[in-house]
């Protein structure tokens, strides 16, 4: 690990990446995806065509919804358990949890720790997300 840190320090002067502009997730139905993310979660639609849509929330990178006929999701396994690739920050974790539960969305219980509160949920396409609220 030490050599990797030294390499990082040596290349730190050549900073090309400014930040994350967007991330992409697979969906099998673009209209349903746009309704879910814009109509239910409050994102703003930036673009919609036959192959993809992108939506924006009030903070963070754009979320591209990419149409696929493959049985896939942007969720991976850690020790056999599903793990999310994207985390959302919220101001009212209790309210958002209740809202998602009323939509019959698969949600985990809220966990409260010293660094904040969090839970996970799945969209209708099998993509798993983390929800985080910093301590108030």
From TrEMBL:
It holds the Pfam family Glyoxalase. Residues 19-134 form the VOC domain. CDD domains: VOC. It comes from the Bacteria. GO terms for molecular function: dioxygenase activity; lyase activity. Signal peptide: none annotated. The keyword Lipid metabolism does not apply. Transmembrane segments: none annotated. The keyword Lyase applies. Keywords: Dioxygenase, Lyase, Oxidoreductase. InterPro entries: Glyas_Bleomycin-R_OHBP_Dase, Glyas_Fos-R_dOase_dom, VOC_core. This is Catechol 2,3-dioxygenase-like lactoylglutathione lyase family enzyme. It comes from Paenibacillus prosopidis.
